[in-house]
């Protein structure tokens, strides 16, 4: 069995809606992280065999295969192909899994994976305009449920008995952890500064240092009149991109690369599409089983904060140590650039493992339609 490693992982700052990255084209933002990956690793782009890129709203500025045009915008050899995939919010995490599978199988030796979403330019739901994406048979199977993730987040909160106060406490903690991480420079080595016409963006923009449970209590529910989910305990609409270099340990030695982490296993799971966002629970179990690692061996978890109810339900079911979950904050504070988020989380996780000498890390991402990815990484000393 080949030994698959992450040889480098970089990301842009995550920009808030209509913030510092809003004027940057998604292809150009992708090209920026591709070139940063090359510069930081020292690899010759000519040895890269494919680019697998995640993007959710593939319309307008994000249509026509962002992955391929990112390669061209980066100035890389025209012989390097690229593709763009969509597994909803897990798109770039799936891109990493596809890259790892290609390398593990021996079909390819060096693959770049990642993703992008500039939601300021291509709004959430833009790809659904003028159509009915779910189809009449899928809608009929689930009694006409609208597949609205906000309503699913409400249903999860109800099923697991999560009060609004508990959700808001978790959200405030996300901002506190993200602010502390920024202050101690935890993100500095992984972030690629983005030059724009308005200046250089160097830091994640979504962190609200003044967030309190009392302030969140004043916000109106977003999806149900008597609901508990609102803008303050949901992920932020964001812009961002990330890229990951995937190869084998042997190839890394040949190319003079210094691996950061070993890819121990990945899994994708389907779950109830009405609850929709519970997929990380079975995906976690599957990924740990594939990796041959017990939950209590994992020293850091990244569980995407699509809504506060998602990681809290995951915690309740898995019994994981909450102190180890999203230790640097999550999407509630740092943002959720859809197709880029999986690679952003992986980049944060890899660097956190390295910075703190943590052996195992796991990330998992809930996704529209009731699916989820989970990936297990091991620090390479």
From TrEMBL:
InterPro entries: Thiolase, Thiolase-like, Thiolase_C, Thiolase_CS, Thiolase_N. Keywords: Acyltransferase, Transferase. Pfam families: Thiolase_C, Thiolase_N. Residues 4-249 form the Thiolase N-terminal domain. Signal peptide: none annotated. Residues 258-378 form the Thiolase C-terminal domain. The keyword Transferase applies. Belongs to the thiolase-like superfamily. Thiolase family. This is Thiolase family protein. It comes from Nocardia callitridis. The lineage of its organism: Bacteria, Bacillati, Actinomycetota, Actinomycetes, Mycobacteriales.
């Amino acid at each position: 069995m080949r030994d698959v490693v992450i040889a480098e992982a970089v990301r842009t700052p995550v920009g808030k809606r209509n913030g510092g990255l809003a004027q940057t084209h998604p292809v150009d933002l992708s090209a920026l992280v591709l070139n940063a990956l090359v510069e930081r690793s020292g690899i010759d782009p000519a040895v890269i065999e494919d680019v697998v890129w995640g993007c959710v709203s593939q319309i307008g500025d994000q249509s026509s295969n962002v992955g391929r045009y990112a390669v061209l915008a980066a100035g890389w050899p025209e012989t390097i192909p690229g593709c763009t995939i969509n597994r909803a919010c897990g798109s770039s995490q799936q891109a990493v899994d596809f890259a790892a599978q290609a390398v593990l199988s021996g079909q390819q030796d060096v693959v770049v994976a990642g993703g992008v979403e500039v939601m300021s330019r291509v709004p959430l739901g833009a790809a659904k305009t003028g159509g009915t994406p779910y189809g009449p048979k899928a809608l009929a199977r689930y009694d006409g449920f609208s597949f609205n993730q906000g309503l699913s987040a409400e249903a999860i909160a109800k099923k697991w008995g999560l009060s609004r106060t508990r959700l808001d406490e978790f959200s405030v903690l996300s901002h506190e952890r993200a602010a502390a991480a920024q202050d101690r420079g935890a993100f500095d080595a992984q972030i690629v500064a983005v030059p724009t016409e308005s200046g250089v963006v160097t830091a994640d923009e979504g962190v609200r240092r003044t967030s309190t449970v009392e302030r969140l209590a004043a916000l109106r529910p977003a999806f149900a009149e008597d609901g508990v989910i609102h803008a303050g305990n949901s992920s932020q609409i964001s812009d961002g991109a990330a890229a990951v270099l995937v190869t084998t340990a042997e190839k890394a030695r040949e190319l003079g690369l210094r691996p950061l982490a070993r890819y121990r296993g990945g899994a994708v799971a389907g779950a109830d599409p009405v609850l929709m966002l519970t997929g990380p629970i079975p995906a976690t179990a599957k990924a740990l089983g594939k990796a041959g690692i017990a939950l209590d061996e994992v020293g850091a978890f990244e569980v995407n904060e699509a809504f506060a109810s998602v990681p809290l339900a995951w915690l309740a079911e898995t019994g994981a140590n909450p102190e180890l979950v999203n230790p640097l904050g999550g999407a509630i504070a740092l943002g959720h650039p859809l197709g880029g988020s999986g690679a952003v989380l992986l980049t944060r996780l890899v660097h956190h493992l390295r910075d703190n000498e943590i052996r195992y890390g796991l990330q998992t991402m809930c996704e529209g339609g009731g699916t989820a990815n989970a990936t297990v990484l091991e620090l390479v000393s």
